[in-house]
Design brief:
The complex is a heterodimer of chains A (338) and B (331). Chain A has a single domain, classed as Thiamin diphosphate (ThDP)-binding fold, Pyr/PP domains (Rossmann fold, 3-Layer(aba) Sandwich), CATH 3.40.50. Chain A is α/β, with parallel strands linked by helices and 338 residues long. The N and C termini of chain A lie far apart (56 Å). Chain B is α/β, with parallel strands linked by helices. Chain B is 42% helix and 10% strand. Chain B contains eleven helices and seven strands. In chain B, helix 1 crosses helix 2 and helix 1 runs antiparallel to helix 10. The radius of gyration of chain B is 19 Å and the shape is globular. Classes of the chains: A alpha/beta (338), B alpha/beta (331). Chains A and B meet through helix 6 of A and helix 6, helix 7 and strand 6 of B.
């Protein structure tokens, strides 16, 4: 008889601690994510310089950065639309990302698609699919290919908590667990799936509970603590790479914006924003690094300016790029070879 | 190995009539399928034949827990549940033989028919597709304050599907009165459950939805009845959906056209010893619920006679008239 019995969920053990180099790298990328997204959402979008909608991951930067830092060159990643850090850490430049948002030919989709609907297989980044959860079986398939070829590669896959209600998510996790595939499933549990709060999405308090449905480890992590994210991600990725199968890692976080730039999130109680503002992952990490003596406030200020300068450059460059020519419209519909 | 026995759970209340009815329906289930097997080989059956040999206790025990106003959606192996809910052998035979007097007038085959007036929703071939359907019916019951439940069945394989996941999640969030019986018969067509799910007990999935789950011996009709009654009480009282995993075994192939050569002989032999009807018959005798072997033989003979009559009526009936082809295409 089973009724809410023990669930294989454990707290982080901080087995893996980033060294100073990794800490500085993570802070840089978190700040770069915040800078590029703020620029896109709060300036370029409002100035009418963006084509289409805008979806950002403000408040969730620690998750994409703290996980992607562990990727090897040949690993494959299937991010969601709140994982800008994955793109930047994989080496995709701010110039190309801004060009993508502006619908320019120099963007990742050559001006064919908008915003985060982008990927680049040269960097092993699988393009985001709008329908959350769709990337779960895709990532399982990539991992299955690695297994069949005997490669030591892993696939990483990101979704929100809402996606875990979907059939694709279930079928993908089931397949990955039956075949013990080298894939890690990350959940950015940001409390709202568009306007649906967690309690209307599922009858359980933690997504990680679902890991037991697949006989895989499930872990709950403070998604706004990048050191905890770093540690949990490292363990899950190491586990996958060593052939022990998939894991489910739930990062508790909060979406500090609406679903998109056109959503004022009036359905979110203001107190929640205030509570989570105090848990801002960047401010928290900066304070920790200053306390540890790794950084000075002056150096943080400099890092901020460096990020702003990179985005200034990206915007200037992107705006000089042409839109796709109308006669190219039938190109890129089907694969035409590299 | 000691003989497989079944016993009544302590929480079960059942009078002698109830005990005998459970026996009657299990034997009716089995003999009707045996008779259909003969008709199949005589080319009288149109289309496939799906047997629930060895799983009769799951169907009969669970359906026997239903009350007036409850809704049931069977799958292809739940003939017994349909019989308990009032479907007659002649209906089933006419349906399998595609005769005009059958429930779909010869338009659809095997158990693909429902009976809304009796609270039976037609099975859908794609397993687990009925989970969200029944969650919807249960939602209606909850919204209207009815003291009823909806019940449906899936196999082990169906728990890997989208519909199962989305339906269970929805039912759990909305706390609707839904009971899902997972008949874990170890094989989803030719896929063994170990290649289907990375868990030993499928019921652990109940936790992932935040609903109550329970494992039951699917070959013990009394245990299935008791578990379903308790599940009914729980979900009708607002406790949310319940998942019952009935451990059982599919003793024939996926269908009559499948010889199940992929199933190890030893596994089959092991489960033949756990026959739900043989074990139940021993219980009836041991507990003095029947006067002796002759009474059992009498019940069996009565069922054989009913089936003989039903076969005669069904086979004497005409096929649908071609002029009715366009009827019942839309509701």
């Amino acid at each position: 008889m089973v009724e809410r019995q023990a669930v294989p969920v454990r707290k982080s053990r901080f087995a893996h601690v980033p060294d100073d180099g990794a800490k500085l790298k993570m802070l840089h990328f978190m700040k770069l994510v915040r800078e590029i997204e703020d620029r896109i959402e709060r300036k370029l979008y409002r100035q009418g310089r963006i084509v289409g909608g805008v979806y950002v991951g403000r408040g969730q930067e620690a998750i994409s950065v703290g996980t992607a830092i562990h990727m090897e060159k040949d690993d494959v990643v299937a991010p969601s639309h709140r994982d800008m850090g994955v793109f930047l850490m994989r080496g995709i430049t701010p110039r190309r990302i801004i060009a993508q948002y502006m619908g320019r030919r120099a963007g990742l989709t050559r001006g064919r698609d908008g915003n985060m609907h982008m990927g680049d297989m040269d960097y092993n980044v699988i393009a985001f699919v709008s329908h959350l959860g769709d990337n779960v079986p895709v990532a399982a398939g990539a991992a299955l290919a690695f297994t069949q070829r005997g490669e030591k590669r892993v696939a990483l896959c990101y979704n929100g908590e809402g996606a875990t209600s979907r059939g694709d998510w279930h079928e993908g996790l089931n397949l990955a667990s039956v075949h013990k595939l080298p894939v890690v499933y990350f959940i950015n549990n940001n409390a709202y799936a568009y306007s649906t709060p967690m309690e209307l999405q599922m009858a359980i308090p933690d997504v990680a509970i679902r890991a037991s449905s697949y006989g895989i480890p499930g872990e709950i992590v403070d998604g706004n603590d990048i050191v905890a994210v770093y540690d949990a991600a490292k363990r899950a990725i190491d586990r996958a790479r060593s052939g022990l199968g998939p894991s489910l890692v739930e990062f508790k976080t909060f979406r500090m914006t609406g679903h998109s730039a056109h959503d004022d999130a009036g359905y979110v109680p203001p107190a929640l924003f205030e509570e989570w503002q105090r848990k801002d992952p960047i401010l928290r990490f900066e304070k920790a690094l200053v306390d540890e003596g790794v950084l000075t406030p002056a150096r943080i200020e400099e890092m901020q300016k460096e990020c702003a300068a990179m985005i200034d450059d990206a915007v200037d460059w992107a705006e000089q790029q042409p839109f796709p020519a109308p006669e190219e419209v039938t190109r890129d519909v089907y694969y035409e070879g590299k | 190995m000691s003989e497989y026995t079944v016993s009544a759970p302590a929480s079960l209340t059942l009078d002698r009539t109830g005990y005998l009815e459970l026996y009657y329906f299990m034997v009716l289930n089995r003999k009707l399928e045996e008779r259909l097997g003969i008709l199949y080989r005589q080319n009288k059956v149109v289309g496939g034949l799906y047997s629930s040999l060895g799983q009769e206790a799951c169907s009969v025990g669970s359906a026997y827990a239903l009350e007036r106003g409850d809704f049931l959606a069977p799958m292809i192996r739940n003939l017994g549940a349909m019989l308990v809910r009032g479907v007659k052998p002649v209906d089933v035979m006419a349906q399998y033989c595609a005769r005009a007097i059958g429930p779909t007038g010869g338009k659809d085959l095997n158990l693909h028919f429902g009976w809304i007036d009796r609270g039976i929703i037609s099975p859908i071939s794609m397993l687990a597709a009925l989970v969200p359907v029944m969650a919807g019916i249960a939602l209606e019951m909850k919204m209207k304050g009815k003291q009823n439940m909806a019940i449906t069945y899936v196999g082990d394989g169906a728990t890997s599907t989208t519909d199962f996941h989305e339906g269970m999640n929805f039912a759990a969030v909305q706390k609707v009165p839904l009971v899902v019986v997972v008949e874990n018969n170890l094989w989803a067509y030719s896929t063994h459950v170990s290649r289907q799910a990375n868990v030993v007990d499928l019921v652990v999935r109940a936790e992932g939805y935040g609903c109550y789950g329970e494992i039951v011996d699917g070959n013990n009709v009394l245990a299935v009845l008791d578990a379903t009654r308790r599940a009914r009480a729980r979900c009708v009282a607002g406790g949310g959906p319940v998942m019952i995993e009935a451990k059982t075994f599919r003793r024939k192939g996926h269908a009559e056209h499948d010889d199940a050569g992929y199933v190890p002989q030893e596994q089959r032999a092991e489960w033949e010893k756990k026959d739900p009807i043989d074990a139940y018959r021993r219980l009836l005798l041991a507990r003095g619920l029947v006067t002796g072997e002759p009474e059992i033989t009498e019940i069996d003979a009565k069922i054989t006679a009913i089936l003989e009559d039903a076969a005669n009526v069904a086979l004497a009936a005409p096929f649908p008239d071609p002029s009715t082809l366009m009827e019942n295409v839309y509701g």
